[in-house]
Amino acid sequence: MKRLKLVPDNTSFSFVKFRHIAVGLSVAVMLASVVLLFARGLNFGIDFEGGTVIEIATKGPADISGLRTQLGGLGLGDLQLQRFGEDNDVLIRIGTAHGASATDDTGQAAVKKVKDTLGTSVEYRRIESVGPQVSGELIKSATMAVVVAVALMFVYIWFRFEWQFGLGAVLALIHDVMATIGIFALLQMEFNLTTIAALLTIVGYSMNDTVVVFDRIRENLRKFKKMDLGELIDLSINETLARTIMTSATTLIALFALFIFGGEVIRSFTFAMIFGIFVGTYSSIFVAAPVLIAIGVKREWGSGALGRGKVEKKA
């Protein structure tokens, strides 16, 4: 019985040939992400924006305009209503001025007003409150977590390979994070703590994919000392292509299932992961590896911990 193969053996795609186009595309994506971030901003969830969120379920399809009319006269200030998942699910957002914290009297009063107005005609599924001070701390912590993760990845690659490899890996990671943030700014999907968790997961996934390619490049640098660096990188990527695509495909199957059936609560996480898998795979092939051509790598690898073994074969 033959095994299912998404990628045939002994492929010979010329990835390096398109590196200039790929780099231009990546730069354009990163610049667009920066513009979108400042022009449209991110649709921060309650984790980062602060305030109170009340999730309710109506007995039938929700009448958003009717609910807005009922709650609009309560003096709640910044009030937003939106559908959340099914037709009868509604998310009510109350701004920080009226939802400073879960124990704040004003926040409790806002929740009480909503409950008194809607009564028992709806089901209260979730009530969450985050104060402005806590949300500000969460933004700083989340930003620091992503920056530290990328910095530690650079150190890891530097010690395992060489600084040139580390630079290529970090540029790929920055590309992945920027592109993911850009798509969230473009689509105005909710950006919350689960999205940060997805970004950190993307950093790890992309780095794992990049290390596999780099490890094969290092191995081939020992074997083929006279081979052109561009050809050697193409060879290395092709040799790891089947593993890369199979890993991405199986991960995406699970993520698409979560995106479709997992509900609204984890939708931002699964969307970020799905998009991150695509851009992470792309960057490992078209960003991280071609950087080595621009800055060059050494051909001699010692017999120490970083360069195990002597050259056994010459092209």
Concise synopsis of the structure shown:
Part of the Sec protein translocase complex. Interacts with the SecYEG preprotein conducting channel. SecDF uses the proton motive force (PMF) to complete protein translocation after the ATP-dependent function of SecA. Forms a complex with SecD. Part of the essential Sec protein translocation apparatus which comprises SecA, SecYEG and auxiliary proteins SecDF-YajC and YidC. The chain is 62% helix and 11% strand.
Which architecture name of the largest domain does CATH use?
Answer: Up-down Bundle
Which regions are unreliable across 5 or more consecutive residues at pLDDT < 50?
98-103, 302-315
Outline: elongated
Distance between the termini: 36 Å
Tell me how many strands there are.
6
> Which CATH first-tier class of the largest domain would you pick?
Mainly Alpha
Helix count, DSSP H or I runs of 4 or more residues: 9
How do the helices and strands follow one another from N- to C-terminus? HEHEHEEHEHHEHHH
Structural class: alpha+beta
> Can you tell me the CATH superfamily of the largest domain?
Multidrug efflux transporter AcrB transmembrane domain
Largest β-sheet summary: 4 strands, antiparallel
Give the neighbour order of strands across the main sheet.
3-4-2-5
Strand content: 5-15%
Helical percent range?
55-70%
Mean pLDDT: 80
When the domains are counted, the total is: 2
CATH topology of the largest domain: Multidrug efflux transporter AcrB transmembrane fold
Keywords: Cell membrane, Membrane, Protein transport, Translocation, Transmembrane, Transmembrane helix, Transport
GO molecular function, one term: protein-transporting ATPase activity
Membrane topology: Multi-pass membrane protein
Organism: Parvibaculum sedimenti
